[in-house]
Amino acid sequence: xxxxxxxxxxxxxxxxxxxxxxxVGEVKGTKGQWLGVxxxxxxxxxxxxxxxxxxxxxCLNKQPTAAxxxxxxxxxxxxxxxxxxxxxxxxxxxxxxxESGIQSMFVTTAPLANKPIVISGKEVEEVGFDKIRKQLAxxxxxxxxxxxxxxxxxxxxxxxxRSWNGEGSYDVRxxxxxxxxxxxxxxxxxxxxxxxxxxxxxxxxCEELPALKSLRVSGNRFRIVELSAQERTxxxxxxxxxxxxxxxxxxxxxxxxxxxxLLFSSLTNLSLANNALDSIVSxxxxxxxxxxxxxxxxxxxxxxxxxLTILPNLTSLILKQNSISSITPSNTPAxxxxxxxxxxxxxLDISSNNLSSWTPINLLPHMFPRxxxxxxxxNPLFNSLTTPDGRSLTADDGYMLAIARLPNVKTLNYSVxxxxxRLNSELWYLSLITSSLSLVAGFAEKEKEVKGSHxxxxxxxxxxxxxxxxxxxxxxxxxxxxxxxxxxxxxxTFRFARHCQAEPEExxxxxxxxxxxxxxxxxxxGLVGKQLNLRPLELRLVWETxxxxxxxxxxxxxxxxxxxxxxxxxxxxxxxxxxxxxxxNTALEALTLDRGSRKKERKGxxxxxxxxxxxxxxxxxxxxxxxxxxxxxx
Length: 634
Prior knowledge:
Pfam families: CAP_GLY, LRR_1. This protein is α/β, with parallel strands linked by helices. The protein is built from 17 helices and 24 strands.
């Protein structure tokens, strides 16, 4: 019996818009037959398969506008076979340059015929129609072929199907090996968004391409993917050289995906983006996989991917644009001892998800012990960061906190993490933890809770010392343990001088930062510029200290080192300079009497201009605290 013209799962195209037939029959309140179709573009329809309260069919895509009713008499776009599409794309009589990807400039007017065309300083090659036609017509030399959105189908004949199942040989009428004769060198083939219904249609094309390494069949909504045992054996040989497979936007379930992927014995890269997947069952994937993309699906937890841990060679996992908000479901406690472990994974992309706390980030080193490269951007977490005292933090601050929490990550959001960035990030992170602990000092349970939310605290203390102050008896008169982080920081109070303000009547602005002594001056300028909303290189830093600049005072009095005797035990002769000891003593006495008044006038005897450069700030200032005047460079 001849198959009906329309049947469930039939692929159609109306005005280049692809759809699948989901219903054939009458619709209440109307006359005649209707086709209920699900559009590949879910925004094109008018409903979800329901009309006036009656559900006629279900769509694979759950968006409310994925479906429509159309009349069977409506004319649809005719399908093409592979060779027709190939010649249409690459060897038509009048080439379509936009589709072929060739960018050319044609010169036809006489005045410009012999004049080279220059665009952005580069001469553009003039290519004639004959040359283009020749290039496109060399189908036997094509290696990369893009035949997406060309309405290709290739129904499998009974003769071919029987041969795959060992029931006979190929009939010449069923197979002319036209593809192999026309384009035998294809290594990369894109058959995405066509009108294939049966996976065997794709297999019959690949069977004639022995050099094929990469296959993309995204956007094809297959009606049939089941294969007989004989067909699976045959297709495993057909697909044995293919290393890259794309099944994006096919809306296949995980069992069907697994069944197809296992046909590719050498597969290393698999893309399953936009398939509405929300969990992965234990059905396996090829152990040869190194890269897996699950972008744009509906996963909500990382633990739902636990069945992937059996893949021994998986090094890259792409999970961006999902709905991941935690490691485990909300009703299941996340313990690092019970988490799934990906032993070989080094690259993870969890950008553009729903991560809103640091808890999942803290557990990443336990799940991915070899993780060295991470994408974490565009998560809600970075929109609500604050310090322990409630001050808002920026996304850049969040970047530093992520570095500090992940000790083995060497690349974050495509940026290489330098040793300096890691040092500054970890020191700052440790200071924030210490601030949190100081707010709950004396409350053991609260302190335990704070430390529990920062798993690296003990490790960072062991590395950099305890930031908190210890007993004076243990550390000497300074009250600071010389091995602690506090001893490596300088508390800098910055004062933006009044005369440097854009508005003279404004008050002088002051703020305080705790900065590691090894921080470069350029970095300090950047922090100050950010605080004042000014360009760092327009600022000058002046360290003000109350200590007397003895050399400057002596110079003011006309004294130098030669005015004093060497206080050694040698037999050197007594100084016979023109100044007597009495003169020097008189001058120093005058210096002592006059110092107080001049100190009041200058508001600090000693000033040190901190020069721009990579020199550490600790080499400019002394002690654990410093007052810095900020000036605008004129």
